[in-house]
């Protein structure tokens, strides 16, 4: 405001002064016009100096100016200086980030909002074969053409990574994890997990081989124990008790071996069996009968079906998953409990649920329930004959059916295990076949629970 007032006074001085001079010479109008023209010429000169300064090198000292132009030159110079310092700090930060990324063993690839590759570190060149001269600005799916990566990239669900072989070497296993940031931009982190993959493969092979080798001796032991049991009346009473315990433990070992072999097959084999439409209500009815027999009348088992579509999958694997959930509910719920097997719509797909009103599970255990041999109560699991592999089998069966397992439970409020299947796994039931809600209660005088 101060400089603006000065400019007004300068204009007034020029107009009045040259106007008086023109009045003296008998031409007041020409004097006023000359004052205005001189004022405009002064501003045009300063404007020209500003243009030349900005066009040449704004980092140099600004031109000298008076009045509002001097203040304008100073302000622009200070602004340019602050901007240069800010840009230098940003360049330093970017340089440090790039140096840090270059020091990483993992690959880092930055993508723009169109999925084109902007920048990557040297590890990406070694793992993925990227070349700055040819690949910069290219879509990442032009380089990584594996259908599994393309599906993962387009699905935009990056909660879990995807494991794929390197495009350069089939024996190099890489883990791809994408993170969204900024304006729909993506950061691709690639980690070499070849050693971990080999160790995991060795573990699976070891478990599968040992389990397979144990089947023969266990079968022999079981046969001889059955023979001895048939003639138990000829043995001393103390031996009879030992035979019963040996049979129980042998049966438990056989169940463990069968579960290990099934889990190994689910982990290593690809989906070799053809998926077919599976009518879920009959499957639940069969599982209900088995669960009721296991309960021995100690709990009530009921079925609810609100979904009319069939499930596309492998019936034997689906039966195994639902059976494991139902049998766990029978084993770990008290007598007079209610177990519900439910088939109903859920979000865009459908859900198979096994719910009980038993003691429930502390939430601290929920993230680890699907781990092999993890048990909430080890003593109780051993007493009920569980192997600790049931939920691991369920998880792998669901993975093979593009589904997921959700667990909801709190102490004293029962437990709900929900198998969520996508809409792509559902198929309309042929006309004339309908499902109905069913509720069957099994009670006997003696409880086997």
UniProtKB/TrEMBL annotation:
GO terms for molecular function: kinase activity. The chain crosses the membrane at residues 12-42. CDD domains: HisKA, PAS. Gene3D superfamilies: 1.10.287.130, Histidine kinase-like ATPase, C-terminal domain, PAS domain. InterPro entries: BphY/WalK/GraS-like (IPR050351), HATPase_C_sf (IPR036890), HATPase_dom (IPR003594), His_kinase_dom (IPR005467), HisK_dim/P_dom (IPR003661), HisK_dim/P_sf (IPR036097), PAS (IPR000014), PAS-like_dom_sf (IPR035965). It comes from the Bacteria. Pfam families: HATPase_c, HisKA, PAS, PhoR. PROSITE patterns: HIS_KIN (PS50109), PAS (PS50112). Residues 86-131 form the PAS domain. It catalyses: ATP + protein L-histidine = ADP + protein N-phospho-L-histidine. It is found in: Cell membrane. Keywords: ATP-binding, Cell membrane, Kinase, Membrane, Nucleotide-binding, Phosphate transport, Phosphoprotein, Transferase, Transmembrane, Transmembrane helix, Transport, Two-component regulatory system. Its main location: membrane. Residues 209-425 form the Histidine kinase domain. Its EC number is 2.7.13.3. PANTHER family: PHOSPHATE REGULON SENSOR PROTEIN PHOR. Member of the two-component regulatory system PhoR/PhoB involved in the phosphate regulon genes expression. PhoR may function as a membrane-associated protein kinase that phosphorylates PhoB in response to environmental signals. This is Phosphate regulon sensor protein PhoR. It comes from Modicisalibacter tunisiensis.
């Amino acid at each position: 405001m101060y400089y603006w007032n000065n400019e007004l006074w300068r204009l007034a001085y020029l107009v009045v002064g040259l106007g008086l001079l023109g009045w003296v010479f008998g031409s007041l109008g020409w004097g006023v016009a000359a004052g205005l023209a001189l004022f405009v010429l002064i501003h045009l000169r300063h404007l020209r100096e500003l243009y030349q300064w900005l066009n040449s090198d704004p980092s140099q000292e600004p031109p000298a100016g008076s009045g509002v132009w001097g203040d304008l030159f100073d302000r622009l110079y200070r602004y340019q200086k602050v901007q240069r310092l800010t840009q230098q700090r940003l360049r330093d930060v970017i340089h440090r980030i790039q140096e840090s990324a270059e020091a990483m063993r993992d690959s880092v690839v930055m993508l723009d909002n169109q999925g084109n590759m902007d920048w990557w570190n040297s590890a990406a060149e070694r793992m993925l074969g990227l070349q700055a001269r040819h690949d910069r600005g290219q879509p990442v799916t032009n380089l990584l053409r594996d259908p599994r990566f393309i599906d993962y990239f387009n699905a935009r669900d990056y909660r879990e990574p995807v494991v794929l072989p390197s495009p350069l070497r089939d024996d190099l296993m890489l883990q791809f994890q994408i993170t969204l940031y900024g304006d729909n931009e993506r950061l691709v982190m690639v980690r070499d997990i070849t050693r971990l993959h080999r160790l995991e493969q060795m573990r699976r092979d070891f478990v599968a081989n040992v389990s397979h080798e144990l089947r023969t001796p266990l079968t022999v032991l079981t046969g001889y124990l059955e023979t001895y049991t048939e003639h138990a009346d000829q043995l001393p009473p103390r031996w009879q008790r030992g035979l019963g315990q040996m049979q129980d433990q042998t049966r438990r070992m056989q169940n463990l071996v069968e579960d290990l072999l099934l889990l190994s097959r689910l982990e290593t084999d690809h989906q070799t069996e053809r998926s077919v439409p599976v009518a879920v209500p009959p499957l639940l009815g069969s599982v209900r009968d088995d669960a009721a027999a296991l309960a021995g009348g100690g709990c009530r088992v009921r079925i609810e079906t609100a979904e009319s579509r069939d499930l596309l999958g492998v019936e034997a694997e689906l039966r195994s998953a639902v059976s494991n959930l139902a049998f766990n509910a029978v084993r770990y719920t008290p007598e007079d409990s209610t177990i519900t097997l439910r088939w109903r719509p859920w979000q865009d797909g459908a859900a198979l649920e096994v719910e009980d009103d038993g003691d429930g599970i502390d939430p601290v255990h929920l993230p680890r329930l699907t781990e092999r041999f993890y048990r909430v109560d080890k003593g109780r699991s051993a007493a009920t004959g569980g192997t600790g592999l049931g939920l691991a089998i369920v998880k792998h069966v669901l993975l093979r059916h593009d589904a997921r397992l959700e667990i909801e439970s709190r102490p004293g409020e029962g437990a709900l295990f929900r198998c969520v299947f996508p809409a792509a796994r559902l198929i309309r039931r042929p006309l004339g076949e309908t499902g109905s809600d069913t509720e069957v209660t099994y009670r006997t005088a003696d409880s086997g629970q």
